[in-house]
Fold these 3 entries.
Entry 1:
Amino acid sequence: MTTPSNPSGAVRRPLAAAVCSVAVLAALAACGKTDDGKTVGQSIDSGIAKTEQAAKDAGKAMKDATKDAQASGSQASATMGEKIDDAVITTSVNASFAKDPDLSAIKIDVDTKDGVVTLSGPAPTAAAKAKATDLAKQVKGVASVNNQLVIKVS
């Protein structure tokens, strides 16, 4: 067997074989059916129409899946944005404590969830505990402060 020098000839043969295969399958399928009054050409046309409709349905399903994926991505981005904001709030509260001479020496645990800051750990005085609440409230994005600091006299 010789290979054609024209590459488009190589493409035409499989395409022609596929078209012939479809025509033969349609003809064979028509042989097994009872006579519904359709010619072979009409049966092939009907098969083509069904294939085109299936392709349209598949295209619509792909579009719907793409929209769902985009919506899921947007929702995930929003969730990530919330978590990042909470992390930024926690970092900012810790930074404000580190700048304050009364609070920088104490180990205050800061947790943030949905903008609600929870402070826990020891506080040397009631004034230091109140100052921690005030500093945390001043941080952008803080919805409220749950101060659970325990006053420990040294």
Entry 2:
Amino acid sequence: MALILLVDEARVNLRVMHYVLSREGHEVFMAENGLEGLRYLKEHKIELIITEANMRLMDGFEFVQHIRDNHQYGRLPVLMLTTMGDEAIVQRAKQSPVNGFLTQPLNSRQLIEIVARTLRNRFQTRPLGAKIVPTFEIQPLSY
């Protein structure tokens, strides 16, 4: 399976996503901020990153920009988590160089499906310098 890096300062989110993705056979690393995420990225051959948009030390947008500024990671797929209802963050995520964004809350089935789809399509990721338009958006579930 894949090496996945999760970046989120909310430990409960990290633990839940780690559990779900590990159960699917992925090796999952967890970072509590963007700086720690950059360290993991240098130390491991990460194949997918899922980062929260809102973090204090280095937010997800700064983290993604650091990744995209390094040509070595130009084709690395990055998904961004945003909070449902925060329209300004959703719009900013749509304009950022991420491959897709996920609105929380997110259920396990959705997470597994999106990760699988992103990993299947990861070699189609545009190189650094090309505008990357988010490829999908998850809408809230209706019960």
Entry 3:
Amino acid sequence: MSGGETLTDEQKPEPGHGLPEAPPGVRDPWKGLRGIMAGTLVLEFITFMLALPVVWRFGGGVSSAGFVIVAVLSVLMLAAAFVQRRPWGLAVALALQGAMVLCFFVHPSVGIMGAIFAAIWGYILYLRNDVARRMREGQLYDQLGHPPGYPPEDKAD
């Protein structure tokens, strides 16, 4: 931006997020993205809790401390799913991803699963930046308007 330009109301960032707010009359895309993030955390919880007994029994074993660490991190992921609407929710989710990747030292298969989910979170962050860019440019579907005659009128004759 050059020095003389000012931000419109649609381009002003949310406090603490650095992301634009949805303009009036437009569905909030952040609500949907937060739902995806929360769902991903729930899927991670399920995945790690189901994999942990298998690794314990058949994967060469995991120490008791390692089992507890992965179990606690998994439960924290479930808890983090419920705080994604908070400004710090994403930071908590990303910190948990880093911790799960470090669980490679507990058992390599747990670390590999953590890395796979970290890649998924990388894609979620890419989508987040893409939505923010489109919002700033006014290119979201709801911001483009609708064709004449939309929504179709009911013909209740």
